[in-house]
Amino acid sequence: MTDKHSNSRETEQKKYLEILGDTIVPNQLLFSVIISVAVSLGGYNLGLWFFPSIASENMVASYSLLLGITGTVLSLVFCSFVFKPKRILIEEETSFESMKEVFEDLQLDVDEELALIENDPITKKELEELGVLEQFRALGGEVKK
Amino acid sequence: MSLLLTAFLFALIGAIVFSLIGLISGTDETAIMVPLTLLVILLGAPPVAVFSFFMAAVLAKHLTHAVPTALMGIPGDTTAVPLVDHANTLRRMGMPHVALRKMISGGIIGAFIALPTAVLLGQFLGQFADFFKSSAGIIFTLAAILIAYFSKGRWVSVLMIIPFAFFIKSLDLMSFTLLEKHLSISFFLGIAVGPMFSDILFATSASAKRSIERSKPKEYNLAPETKAWKGYFPNPFKILTNRQKFFTAITTFISSLTFVFSPVGMTSLMGEIVGSRTKGAYKKSTTSLTVMNGVTESTYIAEAIIPLIAFGIPLSPVALGPASPLFNAPPVFTVDPVNNLHTYMTSWDFFIYGLIGLVVASLIAYPFSMNYARKASVIVMKFVSQEAIVAMFLGLACLLAFHEAQFVGIALTFTVAAVGGLLNRILGIGAGVQFMVFYASAWIMATLFGF
């Protein structure tokens, strides 16, 4: 999470890039990639050098690969620790208002929806157990007024 | 007995690793499944264990990718895209947990229907296997044209088949001259990490950079915590209404048979058919989500299993994408000649070891996403940075390419990734088309130029 101060100060600068659907800081990505590639290949080559002395010949490649992937995972942990995620998490509260908004946005008729729910015992029971049936009913009443 | 135990352990690893990966939203299926499955194969896991691993991974990932889809309204991956609208309706009504419960219950049912159906159909189609194997070259080419036409780019994909085949074959000749062996893992990885790599190329281009620049971090809206059942393992059958169970069963059965179509396409189609027969926003959304996630699951499983059992050559979008290492992962598995899970496993094996994978994934991922969905996604979002994720997959791609062909492998992977990724991102020539052209390239070049 980015703290609010640095965020508001630098909103004018476009310092983030979107890679695979999420935002990153270019330099940090560069370092992460260098670390990850170096540690993975390093682990693999270390294995190729070290394992022949303790393992049978046909297992050397597999063990080395395993050491390489260990390196990849370790660098994932390390990079996550050093470079914090750039995401803003907003905790949502669903309210009566937003429910009303949804129905308006979707151009749904609340009465019709309510009638369909009331006339279908299975759905009615399901919503009752979820504790949202009352919300639907209240919403229906609100619109009528 | 020990083989069963090995398969079980690999399924366990697959289920745990992919339950966590599923929580990371927007992850590309092929880019993640291919390197990790290759890794398991190259490490020398027995074929049946590879299969259990794959099945567990697929189901686990799909069960947990429902979490970002339902709680944040962003697709867990490409197959979850058609579900976003309905998930958003329920999320805004304040019932994201209902969306999640319906989705993963539908997914579980879909998976267990798809497995036996796909094994039986694969067994049946197996009698035509000789024909398919002997004319694989022309089948790959025709399939490439068909898949290209139905890809996002449509005509450009068809137009690019011959140039792309020429490109692949040239690289193949080049690397053969250098190493005196034909490479394939490096090609695969290149196509798989292409979209990710093209974003990075954009980032390093002074002119193209603008399109991916952002002034502030991406925002995620997370729905509040709600739990509405008792105990640790809610019964998926109790969560769905009879009507939803019925529709899920029917649609997942049908979509297990249509293994040549794209999972996303089948998901949208089936969701639309069932949704249009359901009245009321709440019922429509919940029913559509149940059915759609069930269909995603069943097409996925069927598309991997049917070509494996029947032909041993990858003839479906999933077999060409995420499941491709099960067909081709030299030196362990090869397509030409067919020497892969098709040769090592009987239909019965596919059923038993597939079942192990599905059961293990259900026992791990299902209660996990039911009970800890919100907590887990907050942890992932807060502590695992995108930099680290992208770096990890690039590191993995380098590692596997290096394992196949040292620095030539790495150079080849990123050459293919650059060309394939840009074709994919800018022109909409999907990874499936590229994989198909890769398989067809030898036949196309031999037919055109006699080489």
UniProtKB/TrEMBL annotation, chain A:
The keyword Membrane applies. Keywords: Membrane, Transmembrane, Transmembrane helix. The chain crosses the membrane at residues 29-51, 63-83. It comes from the Bacteria. This is Uncharacterized protein. It comes from Sporosarcina highlanderae.
Automatic annotation (TrEMBL), chain B:
The keyword Transcription does not apply. The keyword Transmembrane applies. Residues 9-425 form the DUF112 domain. Keywords: Membrane, Transmembrane, Transmembrane helix. The chain crosses the membrane at residues 36-60, 103-125, 131-151, 158-179, 185-208, 246-266, 350-368, 389-414, 426-449. This is Tripartite tricarboxylate transporter permease. The lineage of its organism: Bacteria, Bacillati, Bacillota, Bacilli, Bacillales.
